[in-house]
Amino acid sequence: GAARSYAAVDLGATSGRVVVGRVGRGELTLTEVNRFANVPVRLPSGLHWNLPGLFTGILDGLREAARTAPAVTSVGVDTWAVDYGLLDADGALLGIPYHYRDARTATVAPQVRDKAGAQELYTVNGLQHLPFNTVFQLAAARDTAQLAAAEKLLLIPDLLTHWLTGSVGAEVTNASTTGLLDARTGEWSRDLAARIGLDPALLPPLRHPGESAGELLPHIVAATGLAAGTPVVTVASHDTASAVAAVPLTAPGGAYISCGTWSLAGLELPGPVLTEASRAANFTNERGVDGTFRYLRNIMGMWLLEECRRVWAARGEPSELASLLADAARAEPFAAVIDPDAPEFLAPADMPAAIAETCVRTGQRAPASRGALVRCVLESLALAHRRVLRRAAALAGRDITRIHLVGGGSRNDLLCRFTADATGLPVIAGPTEATALGNILVQARADGLVGDLAEMRQLVADTQELRHFEPSGDLRAWDAADARVVTAP
Ligand code: LRH
């Protein structure tokens, strides 16, 4: 049949985009029709999403999408996980949603654990401990007037979908990052919600990738020029779940690293791993499309490098990526290595200073140049990729024979090469646009244009540019460097 078009709304750490995907037999292409800044806004109450501004960018993008041919069949929305807005009884948004890097959650975990212990939480929700998981954000909101007035909790992609369609629901891949979804049943754990003092009625009905989330509201049709009746299709609304859906895992033995602001490194499994060893290693069982599990760990990712560049740029120092990477490639190997997941890197005001301090605190010299600092970050990330993937393989009882590195980080040759060298495994880099592709492919499948997950991935493998990095160099040098890393408790 003829090719068809779909619009993906994808809000990432630095920008939001509307991307039109064209899908046909042996055809899968993306065109970005609008890109707009996604910068959190600091208010007296803390760090927040700039949500109405983003919605304007989305509508501008959909207006552009409406001018493409063939006409857009449907729209799908994904963003990062865990963040949410609260609706009151009239369906109005209460307050301005918080950004997960807001510091208010730093000390709330113990309050939740008084009511449900860490082990008990894990056997129910199978979720890695991150200080900003939705359960902890909600614990920080305890006793607020907003939570008292709230009728429904909507994760950000579901909130945007609500603004587009009027429908209310909770998409399941993203719901699995809240801490309130039962990892075994895939249903909300109303019991757990009640135990930690949360009204279970806040949790909307679940919906699954591929289902319709309703048609565009008349004023959205008028504002965008999209056809009346255009549906918003439920996609894997957690960006990482969309990215994993588009990893070209076409043979057994493949692991993935979705590498952007975060590195999400792990395996796709048919069921959760809820053992005590898995909890202690802080692995997560987040839901993927078609009942799959994303068994992975968060690694702080390119955030470290992005933040260094932001700080350097603000000071008028060189921050252009290509020349920083060239300097890093020439810098001394293994001069300093750090644990990228140390809590001091989550939201420091001055990332280069935070990294230098950590080097000194762990008995190493602070990097002497920007190139040395970038090398330290990239080698440290490659070592973290290696630790996490080896651990995932051991905990899940799987062998890893190659690594798919997808997302923006797959453009970074040095990071791909370091990851291959550190692990001793081939790295297949790409697609860089995995999240948008996964969003589009789930829509195309709902439209009957592609078959199952395997067929979606085959289409990615057949159409997208993939680059291969074979391991080289001295694996023992990486072993020695890894032994020097002081990991965060
Ligand atoms: C990546 C991501 C990740 C979450 C984090 C909050 O964008 O969605 O999977 O843990 O953001």
From TrEMBL:
A GO molecular-function descriptor: glycerol kinase activity
Keywords carried by this UniProt record: ATP-binding, Disulfide bond, Kinase, Nucleotide-binding, Rhamnose metabolism, Transferase
Biological process according to GO: glycerol metabolic process; rhamnose catabolic process
A matching Pfam family: FGGY_N
Domain Carbohydrate kinase FGGY N-terminal: 6-244
Domain of life of the native organism: Bacteria
Stored SUPFAM superfamilies: Actin-like ATPase domain
GO cellular component, one term: cytosol
Record-annotated Carbohydrate kinase FGGY C-terminal domain positions: 255-446
Family classification: Belongs to the FGGY kinase family.
Designated name of the protein: Rhamnulokinase
Organism of derivation: Actinacidiphila alni
